Write a sequence for this structure.
């Protein structure tokens, strides 16, 4: 049984007067965590080391799960670069909480539904924490079936009770958009994969992936004729967090903040509306370089992000500077998941249809500041930066000081 449960039982047996006199400990400042992707281990660790004082926690996005429920060390945690990061982080009292990421919905349900397999999976995670001396684990199981909900809760409960009181259980989950903003007519059979009250019970921290919004919110920008497909409109983020705060203690919540952008091909319809085709994700330098090559300046869109719309009949040699296998996943338990891979087979593109344009929207330091200010205003625990790899707007670091 987990030590924290024994401590709680002891507290519950104390006289009421003593309980009332015990102050509730809350963070004095906004906590900052960040993910280092395994596909950019070298640049990510160098980036984190250079700005280590900005962080409260760092999560190497380092483990995936095999079909049998065992862990795969995709980041090679024992490598020298990670070892140095862990050493420096400990000297700065920055926690190292690695992420275990899993996105195979069928396998997730199969393993977590089987009690024996679920227990073995829990033991593998706790063993990984102990062997490496980590401060806990970040569970990032995305795209789950709604039918997995009770088994995911059972898994979190067992993991929570197996971990020691010194270990932190972080749960990273998809954003939940208010249904009235997501649908004109709300379906009768909506179900969700995450039981938020149960996550609040068993997770010490909850990181909300408040990004990859794109076109999911039907209300924002509805009256405007301008193209609109942001990574994360700060107004949408506020809607998401306020909704999820109804079931999750805000002192457990960290708002996920993106450091990248998206490019969409947009076609204007006869009615004046636009159709969107997702192309790829990119790091901010691509947007800046594209604007420079076109001789224009990006503008601050209604979303708070930098935006650029262009149409050209001449080739452009600018390509995304990121090669990250990012996933567009702004829904939970329902809806399609589209995977966007960066890195192009060709370095040129030619648009010859004047009705077809390109829309770029990206999260620069200004957009990140909006999220930081929102987190402070809502009184949540912190923000979680995705991703730390050297590709973010360098001005971001002055925002996080």
């Amino acid at each position: 049984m987990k030590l924290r449960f024994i401590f709680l039982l002891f507290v519950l047996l104390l006289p009421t007067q003593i309980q009332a006199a015990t102050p509730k400990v809350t963070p004095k400042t906004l906590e900052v965590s960040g993910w280092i992707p395994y596909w950019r281990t070298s640049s990510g660790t160098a980036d984190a080391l250079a700005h280590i004082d900005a962080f409260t926690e760092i999560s190497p996005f380092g483990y995936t799960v095999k079909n049998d429920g065992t862990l795969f060390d995709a980041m090679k945690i024992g490598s020298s670069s990670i070892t140095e990061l862990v050493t420096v982080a400990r000297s700065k009292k920055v926690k190292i909480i690695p992420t275990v990421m899993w996105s195979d919905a069928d396998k997730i349900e199969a393993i977590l539904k089987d009690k024996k397999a679920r227990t073995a999976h829990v033991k593998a995670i706790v063993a990984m924490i102990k062997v490496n001396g980590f401060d806990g684990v970040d569970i990032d199981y995305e795209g789950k079936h709604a039918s997995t909900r009770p088994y995911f809760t059972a898994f979190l409960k067992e993991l929570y009770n197996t971990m020691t009181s010194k270990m932190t259980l972080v749960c990273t989950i998809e954003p939940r958009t208010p249904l009235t903003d997501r649908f004109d007519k709300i379906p009768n059979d909506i179900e969700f994969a995450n039981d938020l009250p149960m996550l609040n019970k068993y997770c010490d921290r909850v990181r909300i992936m408040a990004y990859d919004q794109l076109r999911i919110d039907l209300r924002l920008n509805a009256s405007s004729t301008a193209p609109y497909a942001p990574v994360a409109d700060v107004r949408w983020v506020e809607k998401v967090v306020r909704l999820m705060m109804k079931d999750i203690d805000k002192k457990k919540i960290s708002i996920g903040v993106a450091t990248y952008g998206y490019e969409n091909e947009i076609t204007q319809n006869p009615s004046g509306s636009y159709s969107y085709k997702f192309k790829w994700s990119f790091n901010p330098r691509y947007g800046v370089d594209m604007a420079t090559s076109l001789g224009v300046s990006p503008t601050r869109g209604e979303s708070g992000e930098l935006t650029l719309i262009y149409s050209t009949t001449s080739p452009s040699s600018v390509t995304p500077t990121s090669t990250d296998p990012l996933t567009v996943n702004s829904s939970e338990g329902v809806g399609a998941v589209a995977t966007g891979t960066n890195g192009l087979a060709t370095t040129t593109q030619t648009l010859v249809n004047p009705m077809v344009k390109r829309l770029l929207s990206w999260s620069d330091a200004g957009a990140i500041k909006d999220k930081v200010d929102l987190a402070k205003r809502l009184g949540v625990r912190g923000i979680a930066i995705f991703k730390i790899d050297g590709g973010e707007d360098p001005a971001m670091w002055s925002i996080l000081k």
